[in-house]
């Protein structure tokens, strides 16, 4: 910190004048008279000139019980930023805002020449404004008029911690409990940790007010919370232009927007990138959802829903206009219980292929270097094939039945195989146009046209429409009905959280007794079928 008024280190040990010397009684001077409770008799009502939400604003800047050294250490400034220096003649009024102290503090002010800063507290001669700065004796807006001051004058403030003693301010208050806005005159040792600072001065120019917060406890003591809101006053300087505010901090925290996108840095996930501002996660930032496929469509098959099982997490990156700029799709091949050659892809309905930035759209498999991921040709909308031969990525190298990948309990467990696709758009797209995650994932079996999707998700342009309505399938494309049996049973599942899938050859409806009710109701009943009521013996144990 640059100290504008350097003072000798030994000042911390200088006695703080007669008012601070134990055993040297002093008669405090006052702005005006006060009653037996220490309330000034000259109070004026200033409440209508202070915004009613001022205290909330202050507590946002100076939160209760939050150490200023961790919360915002830059609020502690040198003397020019902690005292009021007048550039022209002005009148000053000081108003009570709040006190949250255990002490019955006394507050005063003093004046000095900023070009000749006092080097001894005995030279301050503070005048007491509020002998007993305590609730409920004082209320919001109770004010004391200090009068007129000449240009070139500096006005500082003093808190006598626990100074009110029932009939007046303690004339023998020890030096360790008297604090000033000139921090070199305070009892704590000076240094880089600023423990001898006891006040924060903040500016609220839109209301032409200053706010001063006090820390009323010796900051070398273990019970000091360093929150600087033990006593709070609002200061009205008229005209407000008279105040030298060049070093005074703002009550409203400075909004820094480095990339100029309209999102403050503290809220911007990409503070240096004007084209990106936030991330949205599905199903969560740390968890995975699960996609499970039965690959026998249009026949029902064994319905164990483990022919392909993929854990997934989707990250959408948005700009300041809440438009999506790019996607990060992470899939983990968790299980492969099918013997047929299958592929895995993702379709983005409503997103034309022309909206894909082909130069930056990449796919990484495991720890391999990313490679270009082109949108599939022959499609009107963006479709990406992430694994054209999925079984080749999930091999066990063992004989049947352990040739299955993580579906037989007595076989070796295999780590999942990760696929990471980063899809960038040539121009941002609206969230409504993109639709909800997980979009339209699918597998295909043996031939490209034999696609298998989640219930009612549309096929891509390469799907073979002649397969609809054959076998056990009861799709009706004209009605937007796809990939359901007549009883609404699906060939693919999306479980938006951690999930145990059935072991090989175990029907999912047997493993999860509530599943059939959920499926047959069209998803309206037993929506949490996967959370309980399970037959653990039928599930693959990871």
Automatic annotation (TrEMBL):
Statement: the UniProt record of this protein carries the keyword Transmembrane helix: no
UniProt keywords, alphabetically: Signal
Transmembrane intervals: none
Xref: InterPro entries: DUF4114, DUF4842, LruC_dom
Highest taxon in the source lineage: Bacteria
Start and end residues of each DUF4842 domain: 322-530
A Pfam family recorded for this sequence: DUF4842
Every DUF4114 domain range: 149-237
Signal peptide span: 1-25
Family annotation (NCBIfam families): LruC_dom (TIGR04456)
Protein name per Swiss-Prot or TrEMBL: LruC domain-containing protein
Source species of the chain: Thiocapsa roseopersicina
């Amino acid at each position: 910190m640059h100290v504008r008024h350097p003072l000798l280190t030994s000042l911390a040990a200088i006695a703080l004048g007669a008012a601070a010397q134990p055993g040297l009684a002093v008669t405090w001077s006052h702005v005006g008279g006060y009653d037996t409770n220490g309330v000034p008799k000259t109070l004026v009502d200033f409440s209508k000139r202070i915004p009613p939400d001022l205290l909330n604003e202050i507590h946002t800047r100076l939160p209760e019980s939050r150490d200023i050294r961790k919360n915002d250490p830059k609020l502690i400034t040198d003397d020019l930023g902690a005292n009021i220096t007048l550039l022209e003649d002005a009148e000053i009024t000081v108003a009570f805002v709040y006190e949250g102290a255990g002490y019955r503090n006394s507050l005063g002010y003093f004046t000095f020449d900023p070009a000749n800063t006092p080097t001894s507290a005995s030279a301050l001669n503070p005048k007491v404004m509020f002998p007993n700065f305590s609730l409920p004796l004082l209320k919001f807006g109770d004010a004391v008029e200090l009068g007129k001051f000449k240009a070139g004058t500096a006005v500082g403030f003093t808190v006598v911690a626990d100074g009110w003693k029932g009939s007046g301010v303690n004339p023998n208050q020890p030096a360790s409990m008297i604090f000033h806005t000139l921090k070199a005159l305070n009892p704590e040792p000076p240094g880089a940790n600023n423990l001898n600072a006891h006040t924060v001065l903040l500016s609220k120019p839109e209301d032409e007010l200053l706010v001063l917060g006090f820390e009323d406890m010796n900051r070398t003591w273990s019970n000091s919370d360093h929150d600087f809101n033990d006593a709070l006053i609002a200061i009205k300087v008229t005209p407000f232009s008279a105040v030298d505010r060049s070093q005074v901090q703002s009550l409203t925290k400075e909004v820094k927007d480095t990339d100029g996108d309209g999102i403050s840095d503290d809220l911007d996930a990409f503070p240096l990138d004007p084209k990106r501002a936030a991330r949205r996660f599905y199903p969560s930032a740390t968890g995975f959802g699960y996609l499970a496929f039965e690959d026998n469509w249009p026949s029902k098959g064994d319905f164990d829903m483990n022919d392909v099982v993929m854990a997934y997490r989707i990250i959408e990156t948005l700009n300041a206009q809440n438009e999506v700029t790019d996607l990060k799709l992470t899939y983990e091949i968790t299980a492969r219980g099918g013997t047929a050659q299958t592929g895995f892809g993702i379709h983005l309905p409503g997103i034309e292929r022309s909206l894909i930035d082909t130069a930056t759209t990449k796919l990484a498999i495991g720890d391999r270097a990313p490679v270009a991921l082109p949108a599939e040709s022959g499609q009107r909308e963006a479709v990406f094939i992430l694994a054209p031969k999925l079984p080749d990525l999930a091999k066990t190298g063992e004989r049947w039945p352990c040739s299955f990948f993580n579906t037989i309990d007595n076989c070796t467990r295999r780590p999942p195989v990760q696929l990471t696709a980063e899809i960038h758009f040539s121009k941002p797209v609206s969230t409504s146009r993109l639709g909800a995650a997980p979009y339209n994932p699918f597998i295909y079996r043996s031939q490209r046209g034999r696609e298998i999707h989640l219930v009612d998700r549309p096929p891509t342009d390469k799907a073979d429409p002649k397969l609809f309505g054959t076998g056990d399938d009861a799709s009706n494309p004209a009605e937007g009905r796809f990939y359901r049996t007549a009883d609404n049973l699906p060939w693919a599942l999306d479980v938006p959280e951690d999930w145990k899938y059935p072991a090989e050859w175990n029907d999912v409806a047997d493993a999860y007794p509530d599943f059939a009710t959920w499926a047959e109701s069209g998803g309206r009943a037993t929506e949490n079928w996967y959370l309980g009521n399970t037959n653990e013996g039928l599930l693959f144990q990871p």
